[in-house]
């Protein structure tokens, strides 16, 4: 306690003006990096409490601002199984960070400990990673000070992608037990992926070169390490890594990366695209993935999170059928309201798989996906993964194949359960999944895009006086407040064919978002503008 009080003096919290408080949002705490050191110190205290509360299990802390501009940074906590911090604890994070003085901080710290009956004498352990932002080391230093003040064992892994940190947290907590997630090292992560990738390929060949835009972020050096660890005699995977400048801080996420490609609906400004070449983009911490190509006429086509999700659903559904487990394993897909309506129709009507819609933010999707034996979830922005339940894993391991074809399906499914990150969306792992599927199907990106036609759509960001006036129901698809607004939206939607539109307050920015889709581009635009006028 004395140590906390003494160290805390070095990290005075900067009050936000206008009665505003810091909040632990969808992505933890995220803002201009200058404000973050005291927040990281306090998040360190919370990580200590969480580790003690979880009976000395290891907790992770990731320092990153993902796809946001280089001057931003952020910090978030990873739970023992590699999942995001349990939602119930977000309020404790918010309470600690908003304590106005050092004394109040200690008071809140003690109040949380006694409220949750946490034994503060237990040994505790925290591991951390950070992206390539230059502000990272100072923020990790603040975290280190908090962990020293609480006598917490601490490993700083330095540069990691976000999903690598999630991997390491789970691997640490399952080390030496039958559910071991892999070796507790960065190399262990590459070994696990490389081995699973080769098994999942099952002798198939990959066509052509894949160009990977790493957003000038952490994905670049990590992807290069992975490729070095991949035995080239076992799989012919030719990758060209571009936008890999992690030395010049201001180019991070600048005119490149998954968020740029998805929101601007265009290829990165550089390099010049190879006509009809296969490309994909990671975001700044390598947890999002978007595929695309530009044809000889310079027409751009994109395959986003909804496309990855429906591709995975198609392939996994066929494998489960081929493995003879169709009646045993429940496959389902989880999306948000931003998923293109054509993808929802394709999955539910053509693939005949259940689709569930949840509020925005991967933690919501993740939890719902866990209710399936094979739960596929992606946000349209390219963040997502596929979860295999313990029942699914044991069925795959214990089913005795009656034919070589059935054995192949079982082997490939098991390989995919190792290849696909089970903790969080992972651009490297998801990219390998897509490459496996395309190789098995012998598909180009345009073959993949032909599975269905996306509905034209438009997303608009609207500055509003107070976004908290906007409340939603039905997984954010309808407004319950302000009163009457939803009736007005319904009234506009009615006037268009195949149309859908909704408005909600952003969870990460001080703004509202309006989404609209319709049968044609001009109608989607027109509908978005009309609904935007209702919101303004
Ligand atoms: P908000 O700002 O709540 O719409 C955005 C993205 C989400 C999610 C979070 C966290 C859209 C429309 N929204 O949320 O998908 O990724 O950021 O990064 O893309
Ligand atoms: Zn990210």
Extended strand count = 19
Largest sheet: 5 strands, mixed
Helical proportion, percent range: 25-40%
| Major β-sheet strand ordering | 1-3-2-4-5
Question: Which fold name fills CATH's third level, the topology of the largest domain?
Answer: Alpha-D-Glucose-1,6-Bisphosphate, Chain A, domain 3
- Please state the overall shape, judged from the principal axes of the Cα atoms: globular
How much of the sequence lies in strands comes to 15-25%
Mean pLDDT: 96
Full CATH superfamily name of the largest domain:
Alpha-D-Glucose-1,6-Bisphosphate, subunit A, domain 3
CATH architecture of the largest domain: 3-Layer(aba) Sandwich
CA-CA gap between termini: 49 Å
Radius of gyration: 23 Å
Structural class: alpha/beta
Bound compounds, each kind once, are: 2-acetamido-2-deoxy-1-O-phosphono-alpha-D-galactopyranose, zinc ion
Give the low-pLDDT segments: none
Count of helical regions: 18
CATH class of the largest domain: Alpha Beta
Number of domains: 4
Domain Phosphoacetylglucosamine mutase AMG1: 205-289, 304-443
Family: Belongs to the phosphohexose mutase family.
Active site: 66 (phosphoserine intermediate)
Domain Alpha-D-phosphohexomutase C-terminal: 459-533
């Amino acid at each position: 306690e004395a140590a906390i009080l003494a160290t805390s003096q070095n990290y005075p919290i900067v009050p936000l003006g206008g009665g505003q408080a810091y909040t632990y949002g969808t992505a933890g705490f995220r803002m201009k990096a200058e404000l973050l050191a005291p927040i990281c110190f306090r998040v360190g205290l919370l990580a200590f409490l969480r580790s003690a509360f979880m009976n000395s299990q290891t907790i992770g802390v990731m320092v990153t601002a993902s796809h946001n501009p280089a001057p931003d940074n952020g910090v978030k906590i990873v739970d023992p199984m590699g999942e995001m911090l349990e939602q119930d604890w977000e309020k404790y994070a918010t309470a600690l960070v908003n304590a106005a003085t050092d004394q109040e901080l200690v008071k809140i710290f003690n109040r949380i400990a006694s409220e949750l009956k946490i034994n503060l004498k237990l040994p505790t352990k925290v591991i951390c990673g950070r992206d390539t932002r230059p502000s990272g080391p100072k923020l990790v230093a603040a975290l280190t000070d908090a962990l020293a003040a609480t006598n917490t064992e601490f490993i700083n892994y330095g540069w990691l992608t976000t999903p690598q940190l999630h991997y390491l947290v789970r691997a640490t907590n399952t080390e030496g037990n039958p559910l071991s997630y892999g070796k507790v090292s960065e190399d262990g992560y590459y070994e696990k992926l490389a081995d699973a990738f080769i098994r999942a390929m099952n002798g198939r060949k990959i066509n052509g070169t894949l160009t990977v835009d790493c957003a000038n972020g952490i994905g670049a050096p990590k992807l290069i390490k992975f490729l070095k660890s991949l035995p080239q005699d076992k799989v012919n995977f030719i990758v060209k890594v571009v936008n890999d400048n992690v030395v010049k801080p201001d180019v991070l996420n600048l005119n490149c990366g998954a968020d740029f490609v998805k929101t601007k609906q265009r290829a990165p400004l550089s390099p010049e695209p190879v006509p009809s070449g296969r490309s994909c983009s990671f975001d700044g911490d390598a947890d999002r993935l978007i595929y695309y190509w530009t044809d000889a006429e310079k027409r751009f086509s994109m395959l986003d999170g909804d496309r990855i999700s429906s591709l995975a659903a198609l392939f996994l559904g066929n494998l489960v059928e081929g493995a003879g487990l169709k009646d045993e394993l429940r496959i389902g897909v989880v999306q948000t309201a931003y998923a293109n309506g054509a993808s929802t129709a394709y999955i539910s009507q053509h693939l005949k798989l259940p689709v569930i819609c949840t509020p925005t933010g991967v933690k919501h999707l993740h939890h719902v996906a866990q209710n399936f034996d094979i739960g596929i979830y992606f946000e349209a922005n390219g963040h997502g993964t596929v979860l295999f339940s313990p029942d699914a894993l044991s069925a795959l391991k214990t089913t005795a194949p009656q034919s070589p074809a059935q054995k192949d399906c079982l082997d490939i499914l098991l390989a995919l359960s190792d290849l696909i990150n089970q903790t969080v969306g992972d651009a490297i792992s998801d990219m390998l999944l897509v490459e496996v599927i395309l190789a098995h199907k012998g598909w180009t990106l345009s073959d993949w895009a032909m599975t269905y036609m996306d509905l034209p759509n438009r997303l608009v960001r609207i500055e509003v006086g107070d976004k908290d006036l906007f409340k939603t129901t039905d997984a954010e698809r309808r407004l319950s407040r302000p009163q009457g607004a939803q009736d007005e939206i319904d009234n506009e939607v009615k006037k268009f064919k195949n149309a859908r539109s909704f408005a909600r307050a952003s969870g990460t920015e001080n703004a509202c978002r309006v989404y609209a889709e319709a049968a044609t581009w001009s109608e989607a635009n027109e509908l978005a503008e009309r609904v935007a006028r209702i919101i303004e």
